[in-house]
């Protein structure tokens, strides 16, 4: 098993960090809003044990302006510690009506557990699909 190219040695339960970045640029000028969602599948180890992706407890979403933007503090974000493996897409960031104009960079970070009982060999799943939608 690998984490960003580094092998993971199965030696007790291990919390492995993850992070990815998304960009949103709303230049419509209407202030209609938008939502960034994540659809995530669990990791399934070779012995059929699964593990979920969990948003970081301290800083799950770091939002910065990319160029010019309106108040990034007005955006609604997913709660720290939220499980990303859900039945329907998880809203990570939402810009309500009148917010979200301009460009934003959204850093998402969290972790997943590699249990000591995970089997060695092929691991499947763990796909995160990001969707940006408008009302």
Task: Explain this structure.
It comes from Dictyobacter kobayashii. This is WxL domain-containing protein. This protein is elongated. With 135 residues, it is mainly β. Strands 3, 7, 8 and 11 form a four-stranded antiparallel sheet that branches. Helix content is 0%, strand content 51%. The mean pLDDT is 90. The chain has one domain: Immunoglobulin-like, CATH 2.60.40.
Question: Any key phrases for this structure?
Answer:
Immunoglobulin-like, 4-stranded antiparallel beta sheet, 135 residues, 13 strands, single chain, 51% strand
Brief rundown of the structure:
This protein has strands at residues 2-3, 6-7, 14-26, 34-40, 43-44, 50-51, 53-55, 61-69, 76-77, 90-95, 102-114, 124-125, 128-133.
């Amino acid at each position: 098993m690998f984490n960003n190219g580094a092998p993971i040695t199965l030696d007790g339960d291990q919390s492995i960090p993850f992070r990815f970045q998304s960009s949103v640029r709303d230049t419509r000028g209407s202030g209609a809003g938008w939502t960034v969602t994540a659809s995530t599948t669990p990791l399934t180890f070779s012995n059929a044990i699964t593990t979920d992706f969990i948003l970081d407890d301290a800083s799950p979403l770091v939002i910065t302006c990319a160029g010019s933007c309106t108040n990034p503090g007005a955006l609604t974000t997913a709660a720290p510690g939220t499980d990303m493996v859900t039945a329907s897409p998880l809203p990570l960031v939402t810009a309500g009506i009148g917010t979200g104009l301009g460009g934003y960079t959204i850093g998402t970070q969290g972790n997943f557990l590699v249990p000591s009982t995970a089997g060695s060999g092929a691991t499947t799943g763990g796909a995160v699909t990001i969707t940006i939608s408008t009302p």
